[in-house]
């Protein structure tokens, strides 16, 4: 799978079977759509392609209160690559010029001229162009490609969508979110230097950089962390850390069990296995330490039970 940023005409695409969308989280609905795209592309002897956007359009239009992002562009491309269903991913910069493009111009300039679309698969609620005036009927009227709409994918009786995943994560219902995703929810990022308070209270933590302003979930969690030294169990806090910080920046801090290596500058992946509790503010540091000890004990118990189930 090749990922391209910028003007796609310079890549000399001769034709493609295309789908369009943010694909935030790459949930089961997205996965079924890509499987359908692959089947049609094979029947038509075409490569498969995804047109996606950065930033998320809703982030562009609601900058003061953007929606929670499920996955970074890097993670999204990693999930897509693992599926093995796409040949190309085209990342278009969503800016004022792109937002103001008419639906007709989008069809002619992007789909026909730039991407040489021959087959187009869209979601059943897909709208596009300035003021979202573009729809299935407008696409179907274009003679340059065949347009089909993908019906909704139901998971446990509900329509799989990024919005529903966000809602389940916000509630701390990891089981429901994971059922929609088809995998454990995870975040990845580089380990950054922090205040190093944890090591002074007996619980050293890694501080994982969050590239987006608002995470999809908050609280204290049992986690597994993929590191250059292997997979490590631990307990993590994702939130504002109100006891020791007055900043409005969200932080992801994880204490790894049985680990003492140096991870600064390394990229790690944090998988959220179970929510233990919501974030709280404590009156003093000893009260916080006592709660961290209880959280760590709960996480140890859960991970031990999980290992027995998997044995």
UniProtKB/TrEMBL annotation:
Keywords: ATP-binding, FAD, Flavoprotein, FMN, Kinase, Multifunctional enzyme, Nucleotide-binding, Nucleotidyltransferase, Transferase
Pathway recorded for this protein: Cofactor biosynthesis; FAD biosynthesis; FAD from FMN: step 1/1; Cofactor biosynthesis; FMN biosynthesis; FMN from riboflavin (ATP route): step 1/1
Record field: transmembrane: none
Reaction(s) this enzyme catalyzes, per UniProt: FMN + ATP + H(+) = FAD + diphosphate; riboflavin + ATP = FMN + ADP + H(+)
GO biological process, one term: FMN biosynthetic process
Residue span, Riboflavin kinase domain: 180-304
Class in the EC hierarchy, top level: transferase
Entry-linked Pfam families: FAD_syn, Flavokinase
Family: Belongs to the ribF family.
Function, in words: Catalyzes the phosphorylation of riboflavin to FMN followed by the adenylation of FMN to FAD.
Identification of the protein by name: Riboflavin biosynthesis protein
């Amino acid at each position: 799978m090749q990922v391209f940023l910028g003007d796609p005409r310079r890549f000399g695409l001769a034709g493609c079977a295309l789908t369009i969308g943010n694909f935030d989280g790459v949930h089961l609905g997205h996965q079924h759509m890509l499987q359908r795209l692959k089947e049609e592309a094979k029947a038509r002897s075409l490569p498969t392609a995804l047109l996606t956007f950065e930033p998320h359009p809703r982030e562009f239009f609601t900058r003061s209160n953007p929606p929670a992002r499920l996955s970074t562009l890097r993670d999204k491309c990693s999930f897509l690559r693992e599926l093995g269903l796409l040949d190309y991913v085209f990342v278009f910069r969503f800016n004022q010029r792109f937002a103001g493009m008419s639906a007709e111009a989008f069809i002619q300039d992007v789909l026909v001229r730039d991407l040489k679309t021959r087959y187009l698969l869209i979601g059943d609620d897909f709208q596009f162009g300035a003021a979202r005036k573009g729809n299935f009927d407008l696409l179907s009227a274009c003679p340059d490609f065949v347009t089909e709409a993908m019906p909704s994918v139901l998971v446990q009786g509900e329509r799989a969508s990024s919005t529903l995943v966000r809602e389940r994560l916000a509630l701390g219902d990891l089981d429901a979110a994971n059922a929609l995703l088809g995998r454990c929810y995870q975040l990845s990022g580089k380990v950054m230097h922090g205040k190093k308070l944890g090591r002074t209270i007996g619980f050293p933590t890694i501080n994982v950089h969050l590239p987006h302003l608002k995470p999809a979930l908050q609280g204290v969690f049992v986690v597994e962390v993929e590191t250059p030294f292997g997979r490590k169990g631990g307990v993590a806090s994702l939130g504002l850390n109100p006891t020791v910080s007055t900043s409005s920046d969200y932080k992801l801090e994880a204490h790894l069990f049985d680990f003492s290596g140096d991870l600064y500058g390394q990229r790690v992946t944090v998988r959220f296995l179970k929510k233990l509790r919501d974030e709280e503010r404590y009156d003093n540091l000893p009260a916080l330490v006592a709660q961290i000890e209880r959280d760590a004990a709960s996480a140890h118990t859960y991970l031990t039970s999980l290992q027995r189930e998997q044995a």
